[in-house]
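As a warm-up, study this chain.
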Amino acid sequence: MAAGTKFDAVGNLIIAEGNDFGGRRVSKIDMKTGKSYILAGLYNGRPYNGPNDLTIDEKGRIYFTDPRYFGYEAIEQPVLGVYRIDPDGKVTRIITDAGKPNGICVSPDQKTLYVIANDNGSLDQYRMEKGETSQRGLTALLAYALAPDGTVSNRRVLIDWFPNDGGDGMTVDVDGNLYVAVHEPDPALFVYSPEGKVLATIPTGKAHSSNAYWPTNAAFGYGADGNLLYLTAGKFVYAIRMAKQGYQLKRSGRAAVSGRS
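Now compare it with the structure written out below.
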């Protein structure tokens, strides 16, 4: 049940493992040995709701979202929140006011933490009975001021998609522009400036009840393909050559967080 994934500065694969019989944790795979480590398995002695997406800053700190969209497991955290894993392994809950947090991204200048709130109004939409409806909550792209110590403040609503479903995953280019996979009203990859201005859109198909064309996540390649954007939408993966280079962590020889095997 892997959800969001990202490579750290030494090439380890960091994974947000979701719920619905998934790990409900954040883990790391050493891509050289294949060995797997748990970075965050419990918070205050209780399981996470269902880690969804993650991002890593240049100090090696990992930030991850912990919503719940479906699954039979008990919810044991008091809020759908955002957490930070420090290089020494300490985990801190840093955001409790992002509604149902989904996508997450650090700006290239390390001064802003972006979080997508996508509250569809239920904790398991697939278990709702026919004819039942729910009240959609916050669906917005939020921007928090990110301090050098990894704390956040001054929440701003950059984009408000309500009453539509809004965004899912996202990435950022070297100039700080955001590439956001947006579900409704028209499924597309939206490119926003750091101020929230729409710079471009790349449609992925017409809206459909089966979500067949919904874009879900985006990521840039490395090296010579630093301007190649990969986009997942429905059952498809697209590769799109962009004018901008994607922002990536500078590669180093030191791992961010060690974890337990």
